[in-house]
Amino acid sequence: MAQKPSIPKGTRDFNPQEVAKRNYIFNTIKREFEIFGFQPIETPSFENSSTLMGKYGEEGDRLIFKILNSGDYLNKVNDALYQTKDSNKITTSISEKALRYDLTVPFARYVVQHQNEIDFPFKRYQIQPVWRADRPQKGRFREFYQCDADVVGSNSLWQEVEFIQLYDAVFTALKLEGVTIKINNRKILSGIAEVIGAQDKLIDFTVALDKLDKIGEEKVKEEMLYKGILQSGIEKLQPLFSMKGDFGHQISELKSILSASEEGLKGIEELEFISNGISALGLKTATLKLDVTLARGLNYYTGAIFEVSAPDGVHIGSIGGGGRYDDLTGIFGLKDMSGVGISFGLDRIAMVLEELDLFPETITNTVKVLFVNFGEAEAMESMKVIKALRDSGVSAELFPDKKKTIKQFNYANKRNIPYVVLLGESEMASSTYTLKNMVTGTQDRVSLEQLISKLQ
After folding, report:
1. What share of the chain in percent tops pLDDT 70?
2. Looking at the domain that runs over 16-64+101-355, which CATH code has it been given?
């Protein structure tokens, strides 16, 4: 007996209804991207390993899917290297490409490669899949889509203000109320590391702090100790773990904590500008909140950082995130090209909309009307009418086989097709059509013009 086929862990098949729901989210995000002036680009699904490795920190590098070289890839590994059984060293000899981990680093590569063709500041959006060798769990997959928007070539903090408005516009369009946009600044985190004497361990500090929501305060402290951050420094962090109050109150506390850090105070100044801009412009449904423990564990962020939380009561990770990166293109040789960007987590957004029953009922109705098949002559006449309906923008199809009418009706119900047309001998003789509403059960005898009008 043939073995039952399967798919890799962390990947999924999507049925037509699920694809329709995902497309609803894609189209909503895409529409808002374009309203805000972003232009679409696409990059390859895999990049040269040198493009990706070393850009996401030690943890990120471990999650990159490597692609084996074609042909006899072990042939280039000399015996001495092979005998070491050092997978990291061997990998560089047998794998020169990797699946993209996110869309931001490939975007930086794109900007550098096409810099002479781009008008700066460059506003781009990108909706494509990415891959991470992560442990699969609820809301976390090994293959998933990212929906990114970035601006490069501008230092203006108005870009951050616009991105907060963009988040608000998308979630308002999706009718997802109660979303929280959390914000912090990497300069503030650098200032905190300076104050606690851990400047040389900034990456370890931020990676550990970024896990606060996942593993809790005590585990975060344990990880910091393990990474070599002194107990006396960790004790100085205690006010951060318990910081409460509104945006202004937290800013005041931070000014006191970071009074001796020039970089920390610069981060506070940037946050105040963004907060004042949003206060003046307002948000429709989202809430902006300062979270001083927000770190986002990617090495390339240098300024404001964002993370979006689902409404209270929905237990899922972040549904969006991003931030400012002052010199990401510098890793590819283009210096002083500041950028800022955000990403929407499509899969988690879909799970939230499903849980809250926010998908419109009509988005899975892909066909408006089904024509019943009574035989070859009737099928030919039906196809002529179907062509006229399609030319008028109405989705229509013919049941391909002559079967009992009740079976064809059941097929329409299972597909959630709202209308059925019966075109039998009597209808052909009178040039009329019987239109049956599958929801109410009512039916009418109509002309072709009336049929098109009712279905449009």
Report:
1. 95
2. 3.30.930.10
